[in-house]
Amino acid sequence: MSFLEGRYINPLTDFGFKKLFGTEPNKALLINFLNQILPKRHTIRDLSYSRNEQMGLNELDRKAVFDLYCIGESGERFIVEIQKAKQNYFKDRSIYYSSFPIQEQAKKGEWNYRLEPVYTVGILDFIFEDHKSEDELLHIVELKNQKCEVFYDKLKFIYIELPKFRKQEDELETQFDKWLFVFRHLSDLQDRPKKLQDKIFERLFEAAEIAKFTPEEREAYEESLKHYRDIKNVVDTSREEGIEEGVRGVAKKMKMKGISQATISELTGLSKDEIDEL
User: Fold this and answer.
1) Which of 81, 148, 150, 82 is nearest to 119 (CA)?
2) Are 234 and 53 in contact (CB under 8 A)?
3) Edge-to-edge strand list for the sheet holding 150-161
4) Which residues pair with 106 in a beta bridge?
5) Residue 162: helix, strand or coil by DSSP?
6) Domain boundaries in the chain?
C-alpha cells in the first residue's frame, strides 16, 4: 500500500535528502544552501561529490558513512548530515567524523601539514538537551582559547535545530529562512509559495515532485519514508511515556518495527550483541 499522499518529497528522509542535495544535477541546491551558513570568505562557487564512505588509516579502524561528503573548488571539505532523532554521544560522533576529511589530506613523503578547512553541517530534527531554553537555532562551533578568541578557524561544526524554526510563509525574510521553511514544510505543500519564487527554489520544487519519479525512485522513497515515520513514531511514543522502559525498551520497539540494527545502534548506543539479545 502506498504511503505517498503529498505532492512533494520529504527532504528529511534519507532518499529525499540525497535526491535533492546529493546528485550532480541538483548540485546548485546544495551550494546555495551551504552559502547561507558559511563565512563569506568560504563562499562556494562549485563543488564535487566525494565518496560518502570513509575508511580509517588501517583495516582495523572503524569506518564512517556520511549522508553527503563533498569538496569545494578551493579544497574545503564538507560533511553534510540529516539527523532525525537524538542519539547517544551525538557530539562525539561529529568530532569523530570530522577526523576523516582531516586525515585524508595527509600527503606521502615530505609534507608541511597545511590543511584545507573542514566543515561538519548537521541539520537536526530535534533540539539539543543543553540548549532547550535558547531561541538561537543556528550553532557555529569552533576551537577557541581561554579568552574566547578563535584559535583555529579551519575546523567548524554547524548545527541547525529545525524544531526551533517556527516562522510562517509571510514571516520569511532571508534566504536562510526560506531554506529552513523548505526543510520543515516541503512535504506538506501542494504548490510553491509566493515567497519561494526564486530560481533556485523553482529548481528545487521541480526536483521534489513525486509524480516525476521513476517507479524505482517511488519505491525507494516509499521505503525511506516508512523508515523515517517508524523512527519518529518510536521516538514520540517513548517521549510521551517518559521513556519508562529506558534505552533497551526503545531499542526493542524499534526492532519490532523492523528498523535496521545499524540505525538502532546509532540512535541508542547499544551494541550489536545487546540488540540481538532483545
Assistant:
1) 81
2) no
3) 47-49, 68-72, 77-83, 118-124, 150-161, 138-144
4) none
5) helix
6) 14-212
Q: In angstroms, rounded to a whole number, what is the distance separating the alpha carbons of residues 213 and 218?
A: 6
For the chain, 278 residues long, give each residue's pLDDT as a single digit of tens. Answer: 455 668 999 999 999 999 999 999 999 999 999 999 998 887 899 999 987 655 544 444 445 567 899 999 889 999 999 988 777 788 898 999 999 999 999 998 899 999 999 999 999 998 887 766 677 899 999 999 999 999 999 999 999 999 999 999 999 999 999 999 999 999 999 999 999 999 999 999 999 999 999 999 999 999 999 888 887 776 666 655 545 456 777 788 888 888 888 788 777 777 787 888 87
How much is the pTM?
0.80
In the numeric block, the cell 544552501 is attached to: 33
Cβ pair 20, 207 in contact under 8 A: yes
Whole-angstrom Cα distance, residue 55 to residue 240?
39
Three cell numbers at 127? 533540539
Where residue 43 falls (left for φ over 0; alpha for ψ -120 to 50; beta otherwise) is beta
Query: Are 30 and 21 within 8 A, CB to CB?
Result: yes
10 Å CB burial of residue 215 (0-12, 13-18, 19+) is exposed
Task: Count Cβ neighbours within 10 Å for each residue of 32-42 and write b for 16 or more, e otherwise.
Answer: bbbeebbeeeb
Q: Residue 70: which of 114, 30, 16 has the closest Cα?
A: 30
Question: Letter for the amino acid at 238?
Answer: S
Nearest Cα residue to 207 out of 57, 75, 23: 23
The answer to whether 43 and 245 have CB atoms below 8 angstroms apart is no
